[in-house]
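User: I've been trying to design a sequence by hand for this structure and keep getting stuck. Would you show me what you'd pick, starting by listing the structure so we're on the same page?

Assistant: Good idea, let's start from the same input. This is the structure you sent:
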């Protein structure tokens, strides 16, 4: 049994303070995204790392519009009727990747439960567009659960992403509260199927802490992910995007994150990235390089 260390609800700890977005790189990236009509999860989900990442001229592109068909209670992305699918979007994402000089691109999307394939076709088209435009750029995809469709998942895998990421987000006990439109077992099976179907493509998953889970539940999720063949895990502090989302139950201590990192490496994960500001695509290129160096 793990002991919960320090972390209590209340004032946000000093180590969670970030600088406001500013600077020429930030402005240039903002102008480029507006010019190409692209969305990022950085802006749409109010990511706390936006200032740092955009200063480094990196962003996580969000395809299939910026309106989600689900109502997850942790997420700041707009909910409602989805936008029409834009089949020129993959080309514009590839253009942005080229103009930013990216060597590693991360692509995610809103949930598109209105589509039979959940948007898998657009993921595949975007991967191929980037390959055609910038052949040397690696591509990581952060996919939704496609409502459990193995055919949709295989559509993405056949396009050959360098990393396939799907977040379980929280512990099973909190799914009904945090992710009412998702199922924990379905996400695990999607990750396991990806590992079985395309073993050469590393699988990755992430979860948030500070939503009311216990440390032992977090370790339990890590074990489940390892059994599903996942090789990379990210664990970060949940931060409330706005008053419309769930409140923070507690702020997790730095020591507890260290415990998760140590336990995960002992389980056999290639890499465990755990810390207050860690997000699933945060420093994704550096994580991929670390994993390759370990392998």
């Amino acid at each position: 049994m793990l002991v919960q260390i320090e972390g209590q609800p209340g004032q946000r700890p000093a180590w969670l303070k970030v600088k406001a977005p500013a600077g020429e790189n930030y402005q240039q990236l903002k102008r480029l995204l507006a010019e190409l009509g692209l969305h990022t999860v950085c802006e749409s989900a109010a990511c706390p790392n936006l200032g740092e990442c955009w200063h480094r001229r990196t962003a996580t592109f969000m395809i299939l519009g910026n309106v989600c068909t689900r109502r997850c209670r942790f997420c700041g992305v707009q909910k409602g009727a989805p936008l029409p699918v834009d089949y020129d979007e993959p080309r514009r994402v590839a253009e942005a990747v080229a103009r930013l000089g990216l060597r590693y691109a991360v692509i995610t999307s809103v949930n598109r439960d209105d589509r039979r394939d959940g948007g898998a076709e657009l993921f595949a088209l975007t991967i191929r567009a980037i390959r055609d435009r910038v052949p040397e750029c690696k591509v990581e995809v952060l996919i939704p659960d496609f409502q459990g469709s193995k055919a949709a998942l295989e559509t993405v895998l056949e396009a050959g992403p360098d990393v396939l990421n799907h977040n379980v987000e929280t512990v099973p006990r909190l799914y009904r509260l945090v992710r009412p439109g998702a199922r924990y077992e379905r996400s695990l099976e999607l990750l396991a199927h990806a590992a079985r179907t395309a073993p050469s493509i590393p699988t990755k998953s992430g979860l948030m802490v500070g939503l009311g889970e216990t440390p032992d539940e977090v370790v339990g999720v890590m074990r489940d992910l390892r059994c599903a063949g996942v090789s990379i895990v990210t664990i970060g502090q949940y931060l409330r995007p706005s008053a419309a989302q769930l409140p923070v139950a507690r702020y997790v201590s730095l020591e507890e994150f260290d415990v998760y990192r140590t336990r995960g490496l002992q389980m056999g994960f290639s890499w465990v990235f755990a810390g207050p500001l860690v997000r699933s695509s945060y420093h994704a290129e550096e994580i991929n390089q670390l994993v390759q160096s370990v392998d």
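That's my pick for every position. To get oriented when you compare it with your attempt: The chain has one domain: 19-294. DSSP finds eleven helices and ten strands in the chain.
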